[in-house]
Amino acid sequence: MESLRVLFCSSEVTPYAKTGGLADVSAALPAELRRRGVDCTVVMPLYREIMNARLQLRPRFTLSVLTGAGPTEAQVYSHKEILFISHPLFSDRTGLYSYSGYDYPDNLERFSLFSRACAELVRALGNIDVVHCNDWQTALVPAYLRDSLQTEVGCLFTIHNLAYQGLFDAVLWPMLFLPHEYFNPECMEFYGRINVMKAGIVFSDAVNTVSPTYAREIQTPAFGCGLEGLLSSVSHKLTGIVNGIDTDTWNPETDEHIAGTYSKADLRGKALCKRSLMDAFSLDPTDAPVFGLIGRLVEQKGVDCVLEVIPGLLQEGARVVVLGNGNPAYEKRLKELEASLKGRMGVHIGFDERLAHMIEAGSDFFLMPSRFEPCGLNQMISMRYGTIPIVTPVGGLKDTVKALGETDRPCGIRAASPSAVDLEHAVREAVRIYTQDKALLNAMISNAMEQDVSWDAPSSEYADLYRICKKREK
Ligand code: ADP
Predict the structure, then answer these.
(1) Are 278 and 131 part of one and the same domain?
(2) Which of 95, 176, 200, 258 could disulfide-link to 157, CB 3.0 to 4.6 Å?
């Protein structure tokens, strides 16, 4: 097979820094690509938390990068296959993008600097065929590569979530060090503001998003977040590839975070996991189903619909556990509900890897009624753990979950739409199946655990896309 050298640029990578699915993808996809023979190097910012972890970081390069104060030096360190760009804009504070729920006001400066450093790194490494950029935080890299005439390098831009486009006030344009003619509606302007994600879409050789359905949806006004026109105009280079999950990290047969390991052939461990999950949240014992939810508590994830259906669900005897953080109003409402429904509902506000494993393994059903979902990882993790996902008919949830009524081997339940009324129907159906149709439930658990949710097929599709982007033989 011909050699491919790829620089994979991401603002978060598991286990170094994570706020969501992008971090998991940025760890698992490059690892799988390497197994396929693609030489894939990952680069990310050196956040304070990573420095505090006291890893053995190896100094690799010193890059010269422009800032408002003139040229500055950025050190590049490595740890395993990851390169870290070190700069005070990342190491001078906690967190990745925000503090107490508010975005850092200098995020444009921070991530344009990171993107300029990535473009410089391409030059320093010298033999990169394709740069793979992910979401708005690295969407400027293709613009910098083109601007510095490094046009022999191919660029792939992946949209993980169109809802976050990197919108900034036009007065900040000089901070980008890009030609002013790029600030027009065909390029990086968006209704008088700077739109960073547009740079990735316009300047890349190929654009993809993380499921075929989402790739189609974002070309329509309902899901395009204002970019549907631009995205339709680049449909010739826009595709969708579903994500996989890290099947080593998420493996019920070996998972060290759960009370009992289990497999499709022997589910006894799952019963232990359910008991231990209920204990962890001080829930009253019951034979009724446990519904889990993990995720960012934002409108996208349909948290408001879940809040509406919880009281009815608990009245039917079910238990609900929630792990997440995000919108302070949702956090508060969830805590209030927990306080008034003690013993039947458990809420943990925060980010907790171990608890996420416990919930995936210990729940019977997983609530994921997203309004839109580029791909979604949690529904795939749930299926691997024999936990039936309750999903909506959008994006990756459509592509990855075969639902009851849609196939003869269902592994999920689909609400007809992302609304409280339809979610209520779906959860009632879940309770009915759990209490009255154990044969169907067991078949669904089995079907779910049989799904191929690995990176095997998706990584092969990415390698094909890289070959399309690669411009020349070296
Ligand atoms: P998104 O990327 O939109 O946030 P995904 O379902 O694609 O949603 O991926 C979310 C990932 O982050 C999953 O691995 C999920 O388990 C994890 N996650 C989200 N919130 C939390 C949390 N509060 N604690 C632990 N893990 C979380």
Answers:
(1) no
(2) 200
Count up the domains in the chain and report the number.
2
Indicate which atom in ligand 1 lies nearest the CA of residue 375: 7
Q: Is residue 257 part of a domain?
A: no
Distance 8 CA to ligand 1 centre (A): 21
Mean pLDDT along residues 263-275: 97
Residues 182, 227: one domain? yes
Residues 107, 216, single domain; the answer is: yes
Return all residues near 292 (Cβ < 8 A) that are at least 6 apart. 277, 320, 321, 322, 323, 359, 360, 362, 363, 365, 366, 367, 382, 387
- 85 lies in some domain: yes
368 lines ligand 1 (CB under 6 A): no
Between the CA of 21 and the centroid of ligand 1 the distance, in Å, is 6
Residue 283's CATH number: 3.40.50.2000
What's the predicted TM-score (pTM) here?
0.92
Residue 141: Cβ within 10 Å count: 32
Could you tell me the distance, in angstroms and rounded to a whole number, from the CA of residue 236 to the centre of ligand 1? Answer: 31
Q: pLDDT (tens digit, 9 = 90+) per residue, 3-31? A: 899 999 999 999 999 988 899 999 999 99
What's the CA-to-centroid distance between 342 and ligand 1, angstroms?
25
Residue 104 belongs to domain spanning? 5-244+456-473
pLDDT level of residue 472 (50, 70, 90 thresholds): low
* pLDDT at residue 245 is higher than 60: yes
Query: Cα separation of 107 and 45, whole Å?
Result: 13
Q: Is the dihedral of CA 11, 12, 16, 19 positive or negative?
A: positive
Average pLDDT (250-262) is 98
Name the token pair of 8: 């994979």
Residue 96, domain member (yes or no)? yes
Q: What is the pLDDT of residue 474?
A: 43
> Measured from the CB, is residue 390 less than 6 Å from ligand 1?
no
pLDDT tens column, 403-443: 999 999 999 999 999 999 999 999 999 999 999 999 999 99
Ligand 1 binding pocket includes 21 (Cβ within 6 Å) = yes
Spatial distance between the Cα atoms of 336 and 345, rounded to a whole number of angstroms:
11
